[in-house]
Structures are given as C-alpha cells and as structure tokens.
Amino acid sequence: MAVRRLSPNQPKEPFEFSEENLAWAKEQLKKFPEGREQSAVIPFLWRAQNQNGGHVTQPIINYLADMLNMAEIRVYEVATFYTMFNLAPVGEHLVQVCTTTPCWLRGSDEIVKVCKSKIAEKQQTLSEDGKFSWMEVECLGACANAPMIQIGDDYFEDLDEKSMEEILDRLAKGEEVKPGSQTGRTSSEPVGELTSLTDPEVIQGGAK
C-alpha cells in the first residue's frame, strides 16, 4: 500500500460537529461501555468527513481525539490506513473507478480515459473547476454489471465511453443523473436473451 498522508494544506480553523452530528455522536457513544469509546473512531471519522465536504483534516483528527479520549496519532493512524477516508479535497463529486479484473475485461480502461480527459490526467487531483476528482479502486461488488463506478453513495453500471461522458457532463451542469445500469438492465439480468433456466417447469418449480 502506498504511503498515505494528510494534505500539506490544512485549515487553521478548528473543527466541530454540527448540532445534528453532535447529537448523533452522543447517541452513538451510549452504545459503547465506559472506556471503550475509541471503538467509535471509524464511524465518527466517516461522519466528520461527510460534514467537511469529503475529506479528513488535522482539525478533525484533533477534535475526535479529544472527544474519544484518544491520542491524536491513533486517530491519524486509522484515517491514513483506510482508503475510505480521503486525505485531501476531492471536490463535489469523487468518481471511484473500479479497475479490478471483471471491470477491466469489460472496458474500465475506457472509463479511466474519460476521467483523465474530463477531470484530470492524474488521479486524486481536483479538476480545474474544483468540482471533480477521480481515483482507481478495487472491487466495488457489481462485477456482473461491469464496468462500473461509484460517485458519492450511487453506483453507475454497464458503462461505456459515451455514457461515462454524459454522466460527467450532466453533473458538471448541476443536473441529476440516474444511478444504476446505464443500458436499462434490471439488477444483474443477462444481456440479451436468456440462455439458462428457460424451461417454465424448472422456473415454476414443476420439475422433479
């Protein structure tokens, strides 16, 4: 794994949970025995990252270390170990491109090419307008619908170069985009005609 460090450009202002997130945090802490509050560090980091626009900062680490009675280095270790935590600004839309074998075989190279063209040549780099960044990731669990990406909490599947360009163009304009299959497939149904389980008796449980 590559060395992961916080961005050298850190905010000077301290971080605090919003009222909503602070209330959530207090409720979460009730689930942990006294002295075991440190076990909440991962969900707290995730909540703080979302509040902060998508990345973890040193002020977040300081704040959570104090809240959870942890050494700051321990919070830092968690934030830098798990790739679910971004250590630098990612913009409004972080595009995670799966390039594991099933997606690669189905054309993830074309998806990466679009990201390089429309966002930035180098991954984990903000686009010129500051709205986008992209990164290659390992399997996102939608292999039957490859190639696919994740943006925020949404999956976009059955992609090709054209549909990928359209997604980024619509997001750049502030328009809504429809997640899921971009070819109209439902779930992971086969492409084209059925090739198995075509006997009605088998499908309906009539075969003995």
Describe this structure in words.
This protein has 8 helices and 5 strands, in the order H-H-H-H-E-H-H-E-E-E-H-E-H. It has 2 domains: 19-81, NADH-quinone oxidoreductase subunit E (Arc Repressor Mutant, subunit A, Orthogonal Bundle), CATH 1.10.10.1590; 93-181, 3-Layer(aba) Sandwich (Glutaredoxin). The model has no long low-confidence stretch (mean pLDDT 92). A hairpin with a 2-residue loop joins strand 3 (149-151) and strand 4. The longest helix has 12 residues, at 161-172. It has helices spanning 19-29, 41-51, 58-67, 72-81, 101-105, 108-118, 161-172, 200-203, and strands at residues 93-98, 132-137, 149-151, 154-157, 180-181. By secondary structure, it is an alpha/beta fold. The protein has a 5-stranded mixed sheet, with helices on one face.
Topology:
Layout: H1 19-29, H2 41-51, H3 58-67, H4 72-81, E1 93-98, H5 101-105, H6 108-118, E2 132-137, E3 149-151, E4 154-157, H7 161-172, E5 180-181, H8 200-203
Parallel strand pairs: 1-2, 4-5
Antiparallel strand pairs: 1-3, 3-4
